[in-house]
Design goal:
single chain; 234 residues; alpha/beta; Uracil-DNA Glycosylase, subunit E; 6-stranded mixed beta sheet; 9 helices; globular
Length: 234
């Protein structure tokens, strides 16, 4: 991680802008889930993770209460992460197909993962004000990640958060703004490609709203836009 990204990660982890979210994350970290009762929870805002040279940027919703809020790394330690990292490994962006702890040896190549909200929200529903508090962090990541060519937005909130942070929400008229839908794709005026997927949450995967073929198809499509690069050594 570069000095600039590390400084940003430190600022994110120390953020106290949203009292409701900080209370909730702390309460979860104190109470813990029975199966993780012996573990220490991260319990703080969760920074982004990945390759500074990434051409693929993935924008999720928020940390899971017993996933990232426990482990301290995006999409690590929960069912959504199982889906995401298996696909990233399958299509050449990750050196291993699973992610369970911050020190499990996972590395990403040509990919960076972030989120619209950095704290786990109750019922997975951050408020508009809370998302606005987090937006400068996403804007700073976009400034630092200069090689990004494709953005994969997981869920409508990830989609709209990237459009707002990148400035396109304001620059485009409501009629011009691309609409969210699984598999939706939009090429912005600067050439950036925005791709949408339903979020790989249990609410979507357990109900069949998001199937493995649907999910894998998104990554297959992205690979046609950004061809595979050699993996970095683990």
């Amino acid at each position: 991680m570069t000095d600039a990204l590390q400084e940003l990660a430190d600022r994110i982890a120390g953020c106290e802008l949203c009292p409701r979210l900080r209370r909730y994350c702390s309460q979860i970290a104190t109470a813990r889930k029975r199966e993780f009762a012996s573990q220490s929870y991260w319990g703080r805002p969760v920074p982004g993770f990945g390759d500074l040279e990434a051409r693929l940027l993935i924008v999720g919703l928020a940390p899971g209460a017993h996933g990232s809020n426990r482990t301290g790394r995006v999409f690590t330690g929960d069912a959504s992460g199982v889906w995401l990292y298996e696909a990233l490994h399958r299509y050449g962006w990750a050196n291993q197909p699973s992610a369970w702890t911050r020190d499990d040896g996972l590395t990403l190549t040509d990919c960076y993962i972030t989120a619209a909200a950095r704290c786990a929200p109750p019922q997975n529903r951050p408020t508009a004000e809370e998302l606005a508090h987090c937006r400068p962090y996403l804007q700073e990541e976009l400034r630092l990640l200069t090689k990004v060519r494709v953005v994969l937005a997981l869920g409508r909130i990830g989609w709209e958060s990237w459009l707002r942070a990148s400035g396109w929400w304001a620059w485009l008229t409501p009629r011009e703004r691309p609409n969210f839908g699984h598999g939706a794709e939009a090429v912005l005026p600067d050439g950036m490609v925005l791709v949408a997927s339903f979020h790989p949450s249990r609410q979507n995967t357990n109900t069949g709203r998001l199937s493995r073929p649907m999910w894998n198809g998104v990554f297959e499509r992205i690979r046609t836009i950004v061809p595979s690069a050699p993996l970095q050594p683990a």
